[in-house]
Amino acid sequence: MAPCGAPACEGRPTAVSGRRTGRPTLEEVAARAGVGRGTVSRVINGSPRVSDRAKEAVGRAIAELGYVPDRAARALAGARTDAVALVVPETEARLFAEPYFLDIIRGVSTELADADTQLLLTLIRSGRERQRFAQYLSAQRVDGVLFVSVHADDPLPDLARELGLPAVLNGRRSAGERVAYVDSDNVGAGRAAVGHLAGRGRRRIATITGPLDMYAARCRLDGYRRGVDAADLPADDRLVALADFTEEGGRHAMRALLERCPDVDGVFAASDVMAAGALGVLRESGRRVPDDVALIGVDDSPVARLMDPPLTSVRQPIEEMGRRMARALLQEITGTSPAPCRTVLPTELVVRAST
Q1: How far, in Å, CA of 166 to CA of 148, rounded?
Q2: Which positions fall inside the HTH lacI-type domain (predicted)?
């Protein structure tokens, strides 16, 4: 054992309140300083949004406990990695097949290029890859993290937050999301789509949802239901088909809808890609779009413009979302953000021949 007064070796257990523990945690520092864990993270990351009194208390607790994470050491040295990670929990096939992801990446990379910050694209396709990336974050090898296509049970944004790493989400995991985010008005998208179809005289309006463990998909379904109610149409759960934001998912859902409700005359698909799958099934069944069935998607992607007939779609400002995410993350990294980003951008209905 080191003699009294000698500094403890890095990584050795530390005594806290008379008991032996592992490496000191943010929670232990917060408890010793009498502040919240978020305050400790902000102090470590040099945020100006902390009082001098809190800084002094946290600094004293860090010194007493021997808590000096790698990121804190870098911050004290005035150095950064000048790199951020963009995390997409999807396969390569889906990443490059869906215009949504490419537009987000384009927006993010444009904003980061102006700041001379490197973008590290990370695909997470399995639990093992998720665990490996968690270890990567723990090593503090990036200055911040951007998350795209987050599901309700994704633990990585919370891990980044616990590590004191700035993080921004594309979308939200729930209405009570605590991590900074840039989202679009998904409820408004669903309501506008149904209102448009109802205004065209459609009375049996169905929807093809995204995966309901994603908040965006739940919000679009909520918007659909509000639109049905506003148009004074009868609610019918048989007109709701679950899918997964893929073209094949749209095909399966459209087949299920036609089996259950052959008199359907309008469809709101929660993405353009699913609408493309639905269009193929409608043609196979002998139904004409828009004469027999009117069809709407979401995103206003190149897929919508290239379909035959061209697809009516609810436009999301996807590239702008990517730019706003990157801008918010850079502000978190530099400590110039007055508050965590909570941005919801408007959507816009773009009418084409499919309705």
Answers
A1: 15
A2: 24-78
Which residues contact residue 152 at a Cβ distance below 8 angstroms, ignoring those fewer than 6 apart? 173, 174, 213, 214, 215
Q: How far apart are CA 109 and CA 97, in angstroms?
A: 19
What is the pTM for the complete model shown?
0.77
**CATH of range 14-76; options 1.10.260.40, 3.40.50.2000, 2.60.40.3410, 3.50.50.60:** 1.10.260.40
pLDDT given at position 261: 97
Which tops the pLDDT comparison, 89 or 296?
A: 296
Radius of gyration in angstroms for the set of CA atoms belonging to the chain, rounded to a whole number? 24
Q: Which residues contact 267 (CB under 8 A, 6 or more apart)?
A: 205, 206, 207, 208, 254, 257, 275, 278, 293, 294, 295, 296
pLDDT for 128-178, tens place per residue?
Answer: 888 888 888 887 788 999 999 888 888 889 888 888 889 999 999 999 999
Do 228 and 263 form a contact (C-beta atoms < 8 A)?
no
* Separation CA 208–CA 28 (nearest Å): 47
Q: Map out the domains of the chain as residue ranges.
A: 14-76, 83-184+319-346, 186-316
Q: For residue 118, give the nearest of 320, 335, 329 by alpha carbon.
A: 329
Q: Letter for the amino acid at 291?
A: D
| Partners of 295 in the β-ladder | 267
Residue 288: C-alpha distances to residues 19, 50, 99, 283 (Å): 74, 61, 26, 6
